[in-house]
Each structure stands twice: as C-alpha cells, then as structure tokens.
C-alpha cells in the first residue's frame, strides 16, 4: 500500500491508474499538468509517481528532477509513447526507476512493477542483476559509471528497444550484449553475433538475410539468414560501422518495418529480431564523415550504452583480476607491486588485454611461485608509464617544441590516475616527476624562443627575462649553472 501520484494530460490514463491502484489498496492523486504536479508535491508526500514525459506545459524529465530533489525517496516511473522512448531512457539516467510505454498492453507486468516498487523488490532484483552479470562474465566492481551502465542495461533489457553499445576494443561490448539478451524476455531464444567487418558485403548480406539457390556463385542451395534463425531472439551486430552503405540501407529497412528479402529472392519476409549493435568507432562522427547513415544511427541509438575504457575504471582492476584467477582455476595471486604497476598502465586493449596479461603471468609463474611478482609481467608493464614513458623518450628538438601540450596532458593524466586510483605508490617518484616537468617546461620555452629568434641566444634570453647562463642551464649545457 502506498501514496501514488499520477501525472498525465490524457484523462483516461489517470482514470485507468486510479482504478488499478485504488483496487489494490493504494491512495492515488491525479494531476494533468506540470502545474498540478507542483501543487500536489507541495501538499502531499508520495511513495511512487507515474509521470508522462510529454505534458502540455512541462517536460516530464524536469518534473522528475524536481521530484528527486524534493522527495528523494519517492520512486518514479515515466510514461512514454514510442517516439519518446529516448527521453524515457534519459529519465532512467536521471533517477527514474523505470519507464513504461503507452498504451499499456501487459497489465500484469505493470502490476508486478508496482508491487516491486512499493516493496523492497528492487533490491532483490538488483541482486539478480549482479548474479546474472557474473554468471555471464560481465564483472563490475565499484566504479560508479559501470554500475550505472549495468543498471540501465538491466532495465532496458526487458523493453523491446534496439541498443547501441559503444566502447574501445576489448571493453566488453559483446559480453554486455549477451547480458542484455539473457536479462530480456528473449533469453530462451537464440543470441547470434555477427562481425560486420570480418566478411565481405555479399557474405554478410547472405548471413543476415539468407539467400536463394543460385543467388551468387557458390549459392548451391537456399540458406536461411540470421533474421530468420534469430527471429524472436537477439542479433548482435558487432562493428556495425564496418557495414557497407548498401548493407546499411537493408538494415534500415528491417529496423523500420521488420521486413527483409533474401539475397536473390523476391518474397518479403518478416522478422521480430532485436538488434544490439556495437562499434568501437564513434558512429556520430562516422555520420559526419558520411560513412554511416544518419537514419540508421537514429534507429539503432534508441538506447546508447558507452562502456568506459579500463584506464578510467582502474579501481575495478583487482576485482577483474580475482575473477580471472578464479576463472583460470589457479591458486596463484598477484603481489601488491604487480597490482600497482597494472594500475599505472593505460590498457589500450582494455579488459581483453588484462585477461591476456593475467593468463600469461600464470602460465609463466606456475610451479615457480605462489605470489606472482613484477618479473612475470610483460615489459610494457614493468616501467611505470606515467613517469617513465614520457621521460624515457628521446625526442628531437622539433618534437619537443611541438609536443609540450601532449606531454603536459600525459603528465597530468598520469598523476591524476595515481591520485584517483593508487592505494600504494612511490611519492618520491611522483615528486621527482614534478622536477622533470619543470625542466621540460623550461627547455620547451627556450627552444621555442630560440626558434623565433633564429637561434639568437642573447635575444631569446632577454625575451624570456632570464640570463644567457640560465638559458644554457635550461638547455642542459655542460658547465652552465644559473646560480654561479
Ligand atoms: N566486465 C568484464 N568482466 C569480465 N570479463 C570481461 C569484461 N569485459 C570484457 N571482458 C573479457 O574481455 C574480452 C573481450 O570482451 P568482448 O569481446 O566483449 O569485448 P569487445 O568490446 O566486444 O571487443 P571488440 O571491440 O574487440 O570486439 C572477453 O574475453 C571478455 O570475456
């Protein structure tokens, strides 16, 4: 039992909820506009609110934000029509517990949702979410962005909307897609993945749509496509950005109408496959560059999930490592030094690269030690990157002048990564890197000024307001000591 607020300008929706909710012993207040909303939340305290995203005088998203400010414990569900699903997904990101689509065609599901929200249900459903994610090998630790991402993925899994997953290579796009499939109503139907970049255009189209006998050389008999096989299931289109423009047109048609034609065929077929697409390139940028269709992106990007790279969630590294150790069934563990080296690395290959590093270290260390030390890590991990890589690089003068900006950026990222993530670090080393930075800045300014004065040291020193001796010192010329 609870106090429930319903805000919708369609009066029938209000009446429907009133009937449904009061019949279940709840108290209901109805409002039909943003103005009603503000009046009602000032007068009453609510446990649950249903808010339409499109009101004549207000945006449901703004009402939601206001509700979360004035009554943070009140649960909220936004109501949407198909054209506003994107806004509803935004609402979840802003704290709505769920969204429902109008017209409501599954009343029992709605009743279950209400019961869950009015009880402590969501907690147990969160447990289910984490269990499912672990079973499917999608590990999230304490990183907030990853936790929010998982929660959003879990919520939208049950909706019939397409999903776009973006993230660098190896961040776990395919595992996340698998999680969404298993958390959806389609879990007992096929989940099929296709890499759009791995095969030729003809083969990709034949894989997706099937082909008729004789459609092309080698098509000796007819073949069902994935849209036929995965009908009612999920199709994972990996590297969608690699699909040719011709294939993109055909995909757009399936997304808009659910219809497709086999290669070499004439019959129009229907499919009810859910699409989860993934890309390691930014598709909005690909649209700008005209290699990806804007209308297709619009259709795919109803829900966009962006997986952050591993270097932005290094706090989760130990948990991932533990998971891999368990998965690889080994009693070995990593020394603290190893873990802090790993936290200083930038992981361009993300979780896949981490898995490979763990696997390699175990293979090398097995039978030799119980605690894996830095010696078992690959060379790239042995040098603390934030300090080492920058200072060890011997650069040409020209590079030094041009790369100051990149150097500063890299230096700052390195220090900030340590600041945020390291529970153990060598502060002496950090401080010495600050000195190195000072030298680097001094030298870069001198080099730039020398370039501008065509090598005239006296003029360069004057313009920098330093002595020629200091200038020579900054250039690390032997025997030059500015204090002498
Ligand atoms: N959160 C995670 N927890 C555990 N393992 C993970 C996680 N993310 C990725 N992995 C592992 O990393 C490897 C790469 O994952 P996956 O293939 O899903 O990445 P991807 O983003 O689809 O990569 P690509 O863009 O190269 O196709 C797999 O072995 C996967 O099991």
TrEMBL record:
GO biological process per UniProt: phosphorelay signal transduction system; regulation of DNA-templated transcription
Entry-linked CDD domains: AAA (cd00009)
Response regulatory domain mapped to chain residues: 3-117
Keyword Transcription in record: yes
Protein name: Transcriptional regulator
Keywords: ATP-binding, Nucleotide-binding, Phosphoprotein, Transcription, Transcription regulation
Domain Sigma-54 factor interaction: 139-363
GO MF term list: ATP binding; sequence-specific DNA binding
PROSITE patterns: RESPONSE_REGULATORY, SIGMA54_INTERACT_1, SIGMA54_INTERACT_3, SIGMA54_INTERACT_4
């Amino acid at each position: 039992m609870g106090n429930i607020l319903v805000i919708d300008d369609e009066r029938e929706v209000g009446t429907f909820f009133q009937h449904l909710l009061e019949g279940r012993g709840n108290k209901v207040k109805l409002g039909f506009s943003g103005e009603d909303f503000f009046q009602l939340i000032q007068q009453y305290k609510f446990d649950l609110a249903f808010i339409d995203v499109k009101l004549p005088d207000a945006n449901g998203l703004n009402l939601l934000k206001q509700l979360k400010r004035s009554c943070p414990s009140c649960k909220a569900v936004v109501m949407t029509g198909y054209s506003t699903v994107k806004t509803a997904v935004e609402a979840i990101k802003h704290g709505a517990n769920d969204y429902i689509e109008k017209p409501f065609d599954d009343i029992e599901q709605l009743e279950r949702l209400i019961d869950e929200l009015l009880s402590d249900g969501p907690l147990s459903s969160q447990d289910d979410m984490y269990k499912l994610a672990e079973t499917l090998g999608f590990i999230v630790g304490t990183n907030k962005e990853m936790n929010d991402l998982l929660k959003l993925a879990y919520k939208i899994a049950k909706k019939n909307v397409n999903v776009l997953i973006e993230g660098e290579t190896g961040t776990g796009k395919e595992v996340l897609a698998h999680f969404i499939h298993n958390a959806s109503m389609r879990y007992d139907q096929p989940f099929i993945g296709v890499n759009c970049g791995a095969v030729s255009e003809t083969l990709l189209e034949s894989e997706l749509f099937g082909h008729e006998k004789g459609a092309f050389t080698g098509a000796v008999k007819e073949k069902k496509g994935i849209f036929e096989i995965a009908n009612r299931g999920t199709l994972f289109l990996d590297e969608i950005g690699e699909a040719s423009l011709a294939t993109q047109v055909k995909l757009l048609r399936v997304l808009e109408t659910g219809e497709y034609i086999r290669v070499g065929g004439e019959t129009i077929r229907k499919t009810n496959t859910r699409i989860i697409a993934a890309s390691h390139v930014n598709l909005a940028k690909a649209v700008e560059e005209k290699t990806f269709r804007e209308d297709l992106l619009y259709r795919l990007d109803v829900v966009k999930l962006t997986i952050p790279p591993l270097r932005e969630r290094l706090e989760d590294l130990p948990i991932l490592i533990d998971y891999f150790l368990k998965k690889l069934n080994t009693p070995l563990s990593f020394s603290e030094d190893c873990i802090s080296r790993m936290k200083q690395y930038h992981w361009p290959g993300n979780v896949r690269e981490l898995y490979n590093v763990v696997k390699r270290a175990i293979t090398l260390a097995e039978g030799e030690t119980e605690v894996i030390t830095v010696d078992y890590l690959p060379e790239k991990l042995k040098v603390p990157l934030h300090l080492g890589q920058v200072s060890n690089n011997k650069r040409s003068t020209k590079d030094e002048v041009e790369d100051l900006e990149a150097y500063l950026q890299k230096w700052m990222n390195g220090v900030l990564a340590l600041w945020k993530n390291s529970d153990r670090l060598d502060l002496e080393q950090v401080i010495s890197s600050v000195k190195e930075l000072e030298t680097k800045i001094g030298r870069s300014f001198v080099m730039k000024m020398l370039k501008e004065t065509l090598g005239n040291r006296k003029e360069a020193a004057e313009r920098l307001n330093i002595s020629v001796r200091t200038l020579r010192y900054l250039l690390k010329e032997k025997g030059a000591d500015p204090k002498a």
